[in-house]
């Protein structure tokens, strides 16, 4: 179930309602008829949960799911386990998005509420700048300073001796002690999730959180998206430069350094002690092993073993990339009639 500090669970829905909502056809009458209270990915859904299946690389997850119902294509209906009612549609993920919107809603700070909500909990030593907004149920620890214009969303937890810069916006997040978040940073905004539906592209609700451990620094203008379902996590003492993008479900280890314009795509796993040069980019679902170094402007599209240094685009081991670059330069000079001199 999505964290109730950040998401409100709405009234239950019947199987028939979910099918009608998404324009899906209810398959055979296997599985529970409801009520359904949860939209979740295959690995997290329970008997009162509805999920979706759209990629055969997740066939094993479908076979093991506890979901009571699942949106899937007609050709895949037979893959659903006996307890899971198939909801047949050519647009499984878009149908799931509609179901998630029906069952869950992000908590909001109502416009008519005070700027600092009465239910927010703050130690006496917390310092709030001009125009700070603190949402319902938020918690801020002793000695933390929140600068002018910052927005702390409903349910957010910020630890002790922290700092939040001017106009930063933090939502759907659990933040440790001694964390520094600089001006204009955006923490917990929706990750980029979209799916094609019968009426065009629809947004897929992002129902996860951001978890930031003790001692992390987040630079000005950087964005850390909340998870689609799993959490986006940043490990202890990691330092993030200005204008860095970390997408939904990413897991960043401890003591990592990410220079400006680094882009970490969704569901990337980064081990402890990794270094990223400026403008490095990592494709989704890639694993970067502990202690790896990614050169500036590299474009990494496959897993990097622990301790290796990679560069280039597409990314490859640094020595290989440098040899290939040197060979290309020599070949170009020969073709142009130039001397083979540096």
Main sheet summary: 11 strands, mixed
Poorly predicted ranges: none
The CATH topology of the largest domain corresponds to UDP N-Acetylglucosamine Acyltransferase, domain 1
- Helical percent range? 10-25%
Q: What average pLDDT do the residues reach?
A: 94
Please identify, by name, the CATH architecture of the largest domain: 3 Solenoid
Total count of strands: 38
Helices and strands in order:
Layout: E1 7-9, H1 15-22, E2 25-26, E3 38-39, E4 49-52, H2 59-64, E5 69-72, E6 85-88, H3 92-103, E7 104-106, E8 121-122, E9 127-128, E10 133-134, E11 139-140, E12 145-146, E13 151-152, E14 157-158, E15 163-164, E16 169-170, E17 173-175, E18 180-181, E19 186-187, E20 194-197, E21 200-203, E22 210-212, E23 217-218, E24 223-224, E25 232-234, E26 239-240, E27 245-246, E28 251-252, E29 257-258, E30 263-264, E31 269-270, E32 275-276, E33 281-282, E34 287-288, E35 293-294, E36 299-300, E37 309-311, E38 316-317, H4 318-335
Parallel strand pairs: 3-4, 4-5, 5-6, 8-11, 9-12, 10-13, 11-14, 12-15, 13-16, 14-17, 15-18, 16-19, 17-22, 18-23, 19-24, 22-25, 23-26, 24-27, 25-28, 26-29, 27-30, 28-31, 29-32, 30-33, 31-34, 32-35, 33-36, 35-37
Antiparallel strand pairs: 1-7, 2-6, 20-21, 37-38
């Amino acid at each position: 179930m999505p964290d109730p500090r950040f998401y409100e669970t709405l009234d239950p829905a019947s199987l028939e309602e979910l099918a009608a909502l998404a324009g899906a056809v209810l398959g055979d009458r296997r599985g529970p008829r409801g009520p359904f209270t949860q939209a979740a990915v295959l690995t997290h859904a329970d008997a009162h949960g509805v999920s979706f299946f759209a990629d055969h690389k997740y066939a094993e997850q479908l076979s093991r799911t506890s979901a009571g119902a699942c949106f899937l294509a007609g050709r895949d209906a037979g893959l659903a386990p006996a307890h899971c009612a198939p909801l047949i549609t050519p647009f499984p993920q878009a149908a799931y998005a509609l179901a998630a919107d029906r069952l869950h809603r992000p908590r909001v700070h109502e416009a008519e509420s005070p700027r600092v909500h009465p239910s927010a909990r703050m130690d006496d030593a917390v310092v709030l700048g001009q125009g700070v907004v603190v949402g319902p149920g938020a918690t801020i620890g002793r000695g933390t300073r929140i600068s002018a214009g910052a927005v702390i969303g409903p349910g957010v937890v910020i630890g002790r001796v922290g700092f939040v810069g001017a106009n930063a916006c933090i939502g759907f997040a659990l933040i440790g002690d001694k964390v520094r978040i600089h001006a204009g940073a955006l923490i917990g905004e929706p990750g980029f999730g979209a799916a094609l539906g019968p009426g065009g592209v629809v947004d897929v609700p992002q129902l996860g959180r951001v978890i930031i451990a003790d001692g992390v620094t987040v630079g000005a203008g950087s964005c850390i998206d909340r998870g689609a379902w799993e959490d986006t996590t940043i490990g202890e003492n990691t330092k993030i430069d200005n204008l860095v993008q970390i997408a939904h479900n990413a897991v960043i280890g401890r003591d990592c350094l990410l220079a400006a314009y680094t882009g970490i795509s969704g569901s990337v796993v980064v081990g402890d002690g990794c270094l990223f040069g400026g403008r490095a980019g990592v494709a989704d679902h890639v694993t970067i092993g502990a202690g790896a170094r990614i050169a500036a402007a590299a474009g990494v599209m496959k897993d990097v073993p622990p301790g290796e240094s990679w560069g280039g685009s597409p990314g490859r081991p640094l020595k290989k990339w440098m040899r290939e670059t040197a060979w290309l330069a020599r070949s170009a000079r020969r073709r142009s009639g130039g001397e083979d001199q540096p």
